[in-house]
Amino acid sequence: MAALLKKRALAEYSTQITEEAPPQKYKCVLKPVTSSNSAFAFVSLLETNNNNLQLLLRISEALHFYEKDIPDPEAVTKLGDHFRKEKESAVRVIILSIFSDMGSLPDVNAQLTLLIIEETISLLKHETSHKVLNQGLSTLLRLGKKLSTNHSLHLKLIQQAKEHLTDTSPSVKCKCFDIFGELLPIQSQPDTSMQNQILRLLGEYIHNEDARTRSCAYKNMLTLHNRGLKLDTSIYPEVCVALKDDYENVRVVGLKLIWLFGTTYPKTLVKPSNGDSDSEICLIDDAFGNICNCITDLSIRVRTEAAQLLGTMTSVSLPVLLQTLDKRLMADMRKKKSAHERAVESVATGTWVRGRGYTQDKAKEQLEEDQVNIMKSGAYGAFVHGLEDEYLEVRSVSIDSICMLSVNEPNFAIVALDFLVDMFNDDIQEVRLKAIDSLCKMSDHIEFREDQLEIILGLLEDSSMDVREGLQRILSSCSFVTKDCLQICVNNLLDSLKKYPQDKKSIWNCFHKMGSLHASLTLPLVPELLAIHPFFDTPEPNVDDPAYIGILLLIFNAAKHCSTILQLLEEKTVKHYSYLRDTMPHLVPYLPLSSSLTSTEMKSVPTATAKFMDTVLKRIETVENPRILISLLKVAEKDLSRLSQIDTEVAGTARFNSLFISSQLLFARVTKNKLWSSDACVEQQNLMKKSIGKLLKNSIKMQHLFVGLSSAELAAVRQFKLKALALLLVFVFKAAGQSTVNQTVRALCHYFITQVDEVNRFLVEENIPGEAFTYQVRKELSLLEEIKTESKKPSVLKPELVSRMLLPLIEDLKPVSPPKPNFNIKMCNAVINSPIGGPDTTYKFTAGLVMSVPLDAEISYLSSTKPLRLRLKYPDQQTHLIVPRIDHLRPNQFYSDAKNMYRLVTTALISHQVWSEACFVELNLVLDFTDIEGAIVHSLHPLNELCVVSLCKPVKLHVSPKPVRRGI
């Protein structure tokens, strides 16, 4: 025992500590294609290798990795010889697959491909294996499609396919049919004997006992027709037989062929497929009826395909189209009559006093058994079955088809309205949204009645915002029959506004459009809606009440089309009109009210505004004295900044020019101070770094925050950004010290040179003359590169050389006037509707857990949704950027006429540890361009939010995390 302890102690003291070597980095290099790793270098090993299957698989794998390896005829011959000796069918299949890959390589010439095809044909002559034949025909088809212009080869391959049609395998027959469909010459074949022969051959196999063969024959008929070979209508009755097939694949292809005949030869007269009449009808009507029969098919795939094809057959006659919404019921071998038909017969035959008809003992009309055919009912009730299907796929496609047919046929839209309204009660939200969108597209042809509105308005209570907004789109685009319908709609919208205040703007937009469409129906409702009494003065409503604003929007928009309403308005209503006209000019139209024509109303005059901006900018262009130019730029910046707040129509243009001028002035102030090009203390360096960072942030704003910029504006912004980068490069190089150039300076120098090349390329492509600074920088860089090339040194330019070259160029820079005003420029911004924030509401949650805060925001003129972020800034200065879900960002229906308008409805997740007291958490929307402008961030490390641009002012949430309660 003592010896054991002594041995263990010696082991502990003699333990050697070895330092692990740092992990080595390996670089994967693709080896060049040589004879050692070539795919065809293994072909010669087939004769000596025992495991030929593994060797062939290695050849096949090498073909996919070394596509530049060109095969030779010797390799084809060797593989063919090995094919003839091989007894295993699996190995022969792999050899034919290798032939297919070899001939399909991009660098293989046509002669070698022909050699592979000839070799494959010779190998298949005495082949008996179905798998090998299938692979061989697949190889011939693939290589034949590659040589698409060699029609003599295609005829030869078709002849080979005919010879293999006698094979008993359905897969081999299907490959032969594919060769017929894909390789049969059509456009360049003046003699149609071959084409008719192939069509006859395919027609013989549509009655084959195997379902795969029948399906493939029908499919290649469809392929030939799509390639330009028009099928004859004489085979139409045989194609209709496919709808009775037991296999769904055959029925699906048969549906497509019947649809093809109907849309290609719509006016051709044929006998009805059901044989009920000897009179001829149009082919489109008969095809429509045959496809309608498949709505009741047992297979969901067939039903979905049939419902989808019906919507594209817009040439169907109206009587046949209306039959799809007329459901004939069959029961007890008797015809079921509607209540209306029974009432008419009762009046015609007479009734007893108690309502008992004296002809009731008459025998009821009987039908023979062969006269009842449920499956061949034609178009009767096809869409009714589709809308009542148990699978939502069939119901959704049926709604789409009804919508497409209704847009082209107003009479059908009127009948289909009731059925689509019934779909509002569907259990699946997707189906309800389909019905809503369909009614919006049919809005020009339909009018709502009171009974229909009762069903429709029930969706205003739906918890889904998408359903509510969709219903509001319907109400704002469709017409009402009576004023009672309008009143019911207004009352339900006001009730929905109380229950869902977040729908305020969409409901206002609905009132705005309803008033414009129903001016005559709004007129009798004005006294009731505004509570106007003929003798007594009623109290003045609160103009900030959302419900009252909605009513005013309805009345004011109706008054634009009905001047009689203006005479009913009271003085207080006219004052409210002036207020709303100022705050909501896009919703409130101009009305000729005498008291409204005051100075308080803001009327945008584009012509006067354009003249003012043009005058301001022209005044700057004519000045050459730098001191006077700077003073004029200051005045212009102040005027344009104020103009962007006054006139919303030109706010984007004014804001862009104001930001451009302010950046020029800041650049002039920075370069005037010599601290940027000399060694300074830390405080002065930080101050200069913030100024340069602001210049770069302004350039990022001008480049990414505005939409509608022309090439001239983009060129001016990118050249200004180039100046700011040059200033940053010189400053960082001077701050780092000329003797110690770190990796950051080198990366910034490389980024600057890359930006110079991109800017020059952009100027050349857009044919825009560059500024003097851009020209001089490009010239100097070219000279430096030539010097490096002559000295036979590395071509990478050193930062010190570039900095010395930029220093005199920056010192000589003068402010540049902005480009000519472009009134198509719009600025991206955001408005957070909720949460409101402030100290009145305190959000409490358990520390360490997550609290969700609902967020509803509107984003205008957002060109790309990728950089959008939700920023949370905590009291300890921690900042989190959250990427919102893409499905939470939806187009803003409130601005239906504008582009790039979005509405973000999501939740902000807040989590933190315990605080001593409630503090504010800032919440706002930003655009993060770090991925695009990342090189700038690394050079200005303390300014982490340089590439983060705010879209709105932050909302301050009063948050109080509570400590976790410990249980007893």
Automatic annotation (TrEMBL):
Residues 831-964 form the Integrator complex subunit 4/Protein SIEL C-terminal Ig-like domain. Its main location: nucleus. Keywords: Nucleus. It comes from the Eukaryota. The keyword Nucleus applies. One of its GO terms (biological process) is snRNA processing. One of its GO terms (cellular component) is integrator complex. Coiled coil: none annotated. It is found in: Nucleus. Residues 611-822 form the INTS4 8 helical bundle domain. The keyword Protease does not apply. InterPro entries: ARM-like, ARM-type_fold, INTS4_8HBD, INTS4_C. Pfam families: INTS4_8HBD, INTS4_C. This is Integrator complex subunit 4.
